Amino acid sequence: ENLKKIINLKKKIHLSYANKVNSIKGLSIMAAPLYSKSNYWINILKIKKNYKYSKNRLLKKLNFNNIQARSVWFPNHLQKPYKKDQNYKIDQANKIFENYICLPSSSFLKTSEVDYITKKLR
Fold it and tell me: pLDDT per residue over 57-111, tens digit each?
């Protein structure tokens, strides 16, 4: 019943993040591929080499400021049960794991909270 409303709220949060974060040197919000239509489930932050903090240091800083950010998921091919099953070289997943984090993305997130998060990123 509320799906459209929730997606609209999450789209508003995503656009707010994108407008604020993409102006910070060394950071950007991952956009949906052009061939798809996003449900804005989660907001992924890309940390570029020219940003002032490493991924781990940024996560510590955000968590210290009560911002529940976390790393993207640990790649399956690096998990112990699957390491011996890798049949080809996987590079992109490693780069994503090393340089991306998940920002708070609840549909209950307020504009003031997005502002607070982006202020701490700045």
Answer: 999 999 999 999 999 988 877 788 877 777 777 878 888 889 999 999 999 999 9
For the stretch 80-111, what's the b/e string if a residue is b when 16 or more beta carbons lie within 10 angstroms of its beta carbon? eeeeeeeeeeeeeeeeeeebbbbbbeebebee
Cα–Cα distance between 92 and 115 in angstroms, integer? 31
- C-alpha 65/C-alpha 59 separation (Å) is 10
Q: HSE-up of 103 (CA within 13 Å, CB side)?
A: 28
pTM (two decimals) = 0.87
Q: What is the pLDDT of residues 89-101, one digit of tens each?
A: 787 888 888 999 9
Q: Which amino acid is at 5?
A: K
Comparing C-alpha atoms, which of 16, 113, 15, 25 is closest to residue 62?
A: 113
Amino acid at 1: E
> Quick check: helix, strand or coil at residue 70?
strand
